[in-house]
Amino acid sequence: MTEPELDLTPRAVSESQSEMAEIVLPNDANPLNTLLGGRLMHWIDLAGAMAAHRHSRQYVVTASIDHLDFLVAVRVGDLVILRSSVNRAFGTSMEVGVKVWVENYHTVKREHVSSAYLTFVAVSPEGQKLRVPAVVADTAEQQRRYQDAGRRRELRRAEMARRKP
Fold first, then answer.
1. d(CA 103, CA 23)
2. How many helices and strands, by DSSP H and E, does the chain display?
3. Which among 103, 111, 105, 97 has a CA at the least distance from the CA of 149?
4. Contacts from 154-158 at CB under 8 Å and sequence distance 24+?
5. SS3 of 11, please?
6. What is the pLDDT at residue 5?
7. By CB count within 10 A, which of 43, 84, 137, 147 is most buried?
8. Mind listing the pLDDT tens digit for each residue in 44-54?
9. Mean pLDDT throughout 57-81?
10. Whole-prediction pTM
11. Burial status of residue 156 (CB atoms within 10 A of its CB: 0-12, 13-18, 19 or more)
12. Which residues fall within 8 angstroms of residue 163, CB to CB, at 6 or more apart?
C-alpha cells in the first residue's frame, strides 16, 4: 500500500499551539467536589490531540503519556485551562507538551495543576501510520523543549528495550 501524498513542509511550533478551557461541573467531580483525575487525563489527551492534529493535519492517536502528577486540587466551579503544543516530530510520531492551570475566576488566582508529555502517531482513516512534518522551534524556550523531547524519546526507547522479554 502506498502512502498518500502528504504536505511535509516543516511547521513552526506556533502552528500547533492550542488552548482549551473547561468549567468543572458536579459531573466532573468526586464526592469531595474535586475534579476526578480521570476527567483531567481525558482533557489533557484532548488538548494534546488538538496540537498534534494541527501540526500533522492528519488523524492522530495517542501512543503514550509519560507521567502525570496532580499538584493542586481543582474544585467544582473552577476554570481549568489547558495549553498544548508539539515539541518535536519523529517520522510518524510527535511529542506534545500539555500544561494545565486552574483559575478561580472570582479571585483571579491561577495555579499550575499538572504537566504532561504525550506521544501521538498520525494515521490514515484505515489506521496506516503517516509521516509528519518536522517541527521548527523559533524561540529559545521552544528550542529547549525540542532538545528535551529528543532526550525523553531516548529514555522511552531504552525503557521499552529493557521491558522486552
1. 10
2. 2, 7
3. 97
4. 156/64, 156/66, 156/119
5. strand
6. 79
7. 84
8. 999 999 999 99
9. 95
10. 0.92
11. middle
12. none
